[in-house]
Amino acid sequence: MSTATNEGRGRRMGGAAGGTPSTAAHALLPSPEPVQLVDPEGHPHPDDRYPLPDGDRLLGAYGRLIAGRRINDQANALVRQGRLAVYPSSHGQEACQVAAAVVLGDEDWLFPTYRDTVAVITRGVDPLEVLTLLRGDWHAGYDPHEHRVATQATPLATQLLHAVGVAHAAKLRGESTVVLAMCGDGATSEGDFHEALNFAAVFHVPVVFFVQNNEFAISVPLKNQTVAPSLAHKAIGYGMPGERVDGNDLAALLAVLGAAVDRARDGGGPSLVEAHTYRMQAHTNADDATRYRSADDVERWVLKDPILRMRTYLKTLDLLTEESEQAFAADADATAAVIRKGLNTEVEVNPTELFEYVYTEKTSQLREQAALLREELARDADAAAAGTDGSMEGDQR
Ligand SMILES: Cc1ncc(C[n+]2csc(CCOP(=O)(O)OP(=O)(O)O)c2C)c(N)n1
Ligand SMILES: [Mg+2]
Questions:
Q1: Are 332 and 98 in contact (CB under 8 A)?
Q2: Of 292, 300, 367, 374, which one is the catalytic site residue?
Q3: Which of 37, 27, 14, 25 lies closest to 245, judged by CA?
Q4: CA 181 to centroid of ligand 2, rounded, Å
Q5: What is the position in ligand 1's atom list of the atom closest to the CA of 183?
Q6: Helix (H) or strand (E) holding 68
Q7: Which residue has the higher pLDDT, 391 or 291?
Q8: 96 Cα–ligand 2 center, Å
């Protein structure tokens, strides 16, 4: 039996290839503790491997953080007003959302989940087009090609395979595209997660898997999901480097994700970044988080809020002024106002569009269902014209 291994092929993020087999394997391992460059009190925390992003970059990203929080708050309010059917909020995870979007270039692709609305908007997609999905009007309200953002995936981990496919295609074409694929801690238990990571590693494709570990998959805590030392440790099993980062530290996220993207672009292959963060609110409005976790747990994470620490840090450096704070707040309010106005406008939806744009040729079942719907709509229209309720005699609908 051959004892050949692939040790030596992998590289630490931003590090050099090679070394003895054991050091090469070791180089794939994540840091023992999540990388942190700014602590929860706003103090810098230097790290030899990851330089702090410069002030302008941090300030710009901080502005997006403020907008992200505002978008989350606005969307939650619109759910309560019945204007959105559902909103999986990223409240508390905004640093992950912003960093995932801003580390990419125009030629790159982002593959988000249902929770990543803020990342999609930060990348430049029109907020109203993004929220169309969560209003229930369309499967996706935006053109994925316009900003190179795939549709937000609700079936867990499916987007990871699509992301690997796009990265593989880009590599075959000789393009410099990098793909960043997002998923949650729960999604790492899916078979698709395994298939995506294995394919990506074997074919050495330019993809960054970004896992937002917010400690819950609806009501299931991480300890019931895995007993691996961390989710980042899973990477070594596929032969790619893993890294852990403080998911509420915008500076660390920009540095670590930025290094992973550079590495992929330079031909270094895939890697996995796990961000340690926390889902501050319920899974969605359909969930009651008080049934499975304590208020004290949530309270502990309030102190680690990504906005608070970055504000303190930027103020200490005199990078954030009263005026720029006001400008960021005004900008965020303007985005929220656009969302409010747009979602308070009634849309005319055509229910028969439900059957369009999926298959080039509809299946016989879909043709039958579409015909039934058309008949029902015609009956309703006739009834409305005649002033009756539209139901047929004996109709049990
Ligand atoms: C294949 C699949 N199985 C189950 C579900 C139902 N489901 C929706 S969200 C969710 C939890 C996912 O948790 P995680 O991956 O940690 O992401 P988070 O919601 O915390 O961002 C589950 C089980 C689904 N959407 N898709
Ligand atoms: Mg989760």
A1: no
A2: 292
A3: 37
A4: 15
A5: 15
A6: helix 55-80
A7: 291
A8: 13
Would you say 131 and 141 are in contact if contact means Cβ atoms under 8 Å apart? yes
Closest residue to atom 26 of ligand 1, CA basis: 155
pLDDT on residue 22: 67
- pTM as predicted: 0.91
Active site residue 279: yes
Residue 144 has pLDDT above 50, yes or no: yes
Q: How far is the CA of 266 from the centre of ligand 2 (A)?
A: 31
The minimum-distance atom of ligand 1 relative to the CA of 213 is 16
Q: Say how far apart CA 150 and CA 143 lie, in whole Å.
A: 8
pLDDT in tens, 47-74: 999 999 999 999 999 999 999 999 999 9
Do 270 and 210 form a contact (C-beta atoms < 8 A)?
no
- Output the CA 164–ligand 2 centroid distance in Å: 21
Q: What is the pLDDT of residues 162-216, one digit of tens each?
A: 999 999 999 999 999 999 999 999 999 999 999 999 999 999 999 999 999 999 9
pLDDT of residue 327 exceeding 70, the answer is yes
The torsion angles phi and psi of 275, rounded to 5 degrees, stand at -100, 125
Domain boundaries, the chain: 28-343, 351-386
Token pair of 260, please?
């992973």
How far does CA 397 lie from the centroid of its chain?
40
Write out residues with Cβ below 6 Å of ligand 1: 115, 154-156, 184-187, 214, 216-218, 279, 283
Question: Could you give the CA distance from residue 87 to residue 103 in angstroms, rounded to a whole number?
Answer: 25
- Distance between CA 234 and CA 188 in Å, rounded? 9
Say how far apart CA 12 and CA 27 lie, in whole Å.
Answer: 5
Token representation of residue 289? 């988080």
CATH architecture of the domain with residue range 28-343: 3-Layer(aba) Sandwich (3.40)
Backbone angles phi, psi at 57, to 5 degrees: -65, -45
- Structure tokens, 343: 């979602």
CA dihedral 327, 332, 335, 336 (to 10 degrees): -140
Active-site residue, 283 included: yes
CB 188 within 8 A of CB 225: yes
204 in active site: no
Protein residues placing their CB within 5 Å of the ion ligand 2: 184-186, 214, 216-217
